[in-house]
Amino acid sequence: MEPLAQVRSRSVVIASSNIDTDQIIPARFLTTTTKEGLGRQLFADWRYAADGSPNPDFVLNLPAAADCRILVAGRNFGCGSSREHAPWALLDYGIRAVISTEIADIFKSNALKNGLLPITVDDATGQWLLANPGAEILVDLHSSSITLPDGTQSRFPIDAFARHCLLNGIDELGYLQSKLPDIERYEAARTW
Amino acid sequence: MAARTLFDKVWSEHEVVPETADTPAVLYIDLHLIHEVTSPQAFSLLRSRGLPVRRPDRTLATMDHSTPTRTEQVFGNIPIAVDAAAKQVRQLETNAADFGVELFAMRDARRGIVHVISPELGTTLPGMTIVCGDSHTSTHGAFGALAFGIGSTEVGHVFATQCLLQRKPKTLAVNVEGALRPGVTAKDLILHIIGKIGVSGGTGHVIEYRGSTIRALSMDERMTICNMSIEAGARAGMIAPDEVTLAYLRDKPRAPTGSAWDAAAARWRTLASDPGARFDASVDIDATTLEPMITYGTNPGMVVPVAATIPARPATGAGQTVFDKALSYMGFACGESLIGKRVDVVFIGSCTNGRLADLEAAASILKGRKIAKGVKLLIVPGSQQVKRDAESRGLAQIFKDAGADWRESGCSMCLGMNGDTVTSGQYCISTSNRNFEGRQGVGARTLLVSPLTAAASAVQGSIADPREYL
Question: B163 to chain A: which residues are within 8 Å by CB?
Answer without folding.
Answer: 176, 179, 183
